[in-house]
Automatic annotation (TrEMBL):
<dbReference type="GO" id="GO:0016887">
    <property type="term" value="F:ATP hydrolysis activity"/>
</dbReference>
<keyword id="KW-0547">Nucleotide-binding</keyword>
<dbReference type="Pfam" id="PF00004">
    <property type="entry name" value="AAA"/>
</dbReference>
<dbReference type="InterPro" id="IPR050747">
    <property type="entry name" value="Mitochondrial_chaperone_BCS1"/>
</dbReference>
<feature type="compositionally biased region" description="Basic and acidic residues">
    <location>
        <begin position="327"/>
        <end position="339"/>
    </location>
</feature>
<feature type="transmembrane region" description="Helical">
    <location>
        <begin position="23"/>
        <end position="41"/>
    </location>
</feature>
<dbReference type="Pfam" id="PF25568">
    <property type="entry name" value="AAA_lid_At3g28540"/>
</dbReference>
<feature type="region of interest" description="Disordered">
    <location>
        <begin position="321"/>
        <end position="351"/>
    </location>
</feature>
<keyword id="KW-1133">Transmembrane helix</keyword>
<dbReference type="InterPro" id="IPR027417">
    <property type="entry name" value="P-loop_NTPase"/>
</dbReference>
<dbReference type="InterPro" id="IPR025753">
    <property type="entry name" value="AAA_N_dom"/>
</dbReference>
<dbReference type="InterPro" id="IPR003960">
    <property type="entry name" value="ATPase_AAA_CS"/>
</dbReference>
<keyword id="KW-0067">ATP-binding</keyword>
<keyword id="KW-0460">Magnesium</keyword>
<dbReference type="GO" id="GO:0006950">
    <property type="term" value="P:response to stress"/>
</dbReference>
<dbReference type="Pfam" id="PF14363">
    <property type="entry name" value="AAA_assoc"/>
</dbReference>
<keyword id="KW-0472">Membrane</keyword>
Amino acid sequence: MSEPESCLQEKVRGGTKMNPGDLFGHIGSIVGSLMFIWAMFKQFFPYQVVNQIEKHSQRLVTYVYPYIQITFHEFTGERLMRSEAYSAIENYLSSKASTQAKRLKGDIGKNNQSLVLSMDDHEEVSDEFNGVKLWWASGKHISKAQSTVSFHHPMSDERRYYKLTFHKRNRDVILGTYLNYVMKEGKAIKVKNRQRKLYTNSGSYWSHVVFEHPATFQTLAMDPEEKEMIIDDLITFSKSGGFYARIGRAWKRGYLLYGPPGTGKSTMIAAMANLLGYDLYDLELTAVKDNTELRKLLIETSSKSIIVIEDIDCSLDLTGQRRKKKEKEEKEQEQEKNHTGQNQQGMQEKDVKSSQVTLSGLLNFIDGLWSACAGERLIVFTTNYVEKLDPALVRKGRMDLHIELSYCGFEAFKLLAKNYLNIDAHHLFGTISELLKEIKITPAEVAEHLMPKSASGDAEIYLKSLIQALELTKMQEKVEHGPHWTEN
Ligand SMILES: Nc1ncnc2c1ncn2[C@@H]1O[C@H](COP(=O)(O)OP(=O)(O)OP(=O)(O)O)[C@@H](O)[C@H]1O
């Protein structure tokens, strides 16, 4: 028999297009009818003849219909839950549908921005896996029994399905690997397209909004090599589920971002979330009462998420209880000296005790319980003062990567100029390059100068404004450091 493609050519019968699923279904029903007739009449034939006929008819059936079909229904179970397999297949087929199917269905995606296309009912697309060709057809049953009952819900009696057709010689490949592959890919596409969320905690409860920060690594101004290294690290992490499972470690990674305010720490976190398609949990530690609440919050975070604790040095008494004790003693001495300050003192004490989350509570969670949570998670701490942090918090293994975000260098400036002014070169770049070698300015400040103030603004105006600011800072520093101050 020739390859199935020839059978699968569009057939127009009585004006309706026939897909391979229908075609094979049709052949199947003819074969079924013949079998039925044979069952009725075979008693009139001698035993040997029956044996011979059955042997040959079996061969004939196999010869005529060498394909296997698997149907995946949209709704399954008694409560008609939407099948995960169906939705994974739908996602998997969406890209194939847009290039192959002649009739497509369009819908607005969950992020309300992109149009999502899928194949319309009774359409068909082909696929190839390890050299094996197969076909997916979409279809729908309309239940007649329900159509009168569900008058108010005209769509509720439609049952959609996908039908997979493949040659029986490929059974092992399809059932063994292909279907797993489709499920995995389909779920990955779903994760990529899902609407991501930004969670924040008030006390021990998370609330969320849609996360739509536009930052990407492309727009993040920093040393290009370091940026490449970070992107590599993140992508490697996100693909290393198998590796972490094999070595028996929790699939987590810790990042410490440090640097002065306005150097892009928060922007980088948003870029990380956008790169990996993860949700963001912005954990406000000062709002968490104690370690029990902290544990509850962290356990509730979902897989594929970044948990962020910003300004960790301000959120936690990082030098442990000792400093607290010392402060308390000092305050007590002061209190003894000054009885009139009693009320105020009480209030300050209350502040110190308002959050009883401790460093050890946080570390215990990162090292211990955390490991029991399935799925991948990044934990990111940020600080403006890395030197203030307790070494226990930042030691390797807990914080796998320490990333310094620093003042704006010339490379970072060029990227900002490209982003904000859409220029790659300018005669003032040389002056700026020289000034940036001497003056510390944050990318946030540079961005402020380059931000177009009018629709017709000339790039030169903004670059000159930046040069002015840099020269002013240079003069101020000279004044502050006296006449002997030398530029470094
Ligand atoms: N490296 C950078 N690349 C591009 N834009 C930047 C960068 N750094 C800062 N910016 C701009 O400055 C603004 C403030 O930056 P951001 O909040 O990321 O800094 P930060 O280091 O997190 O500051 P803080 O320590 O005060 O939280 C951002 O909205 C962004 O537009």
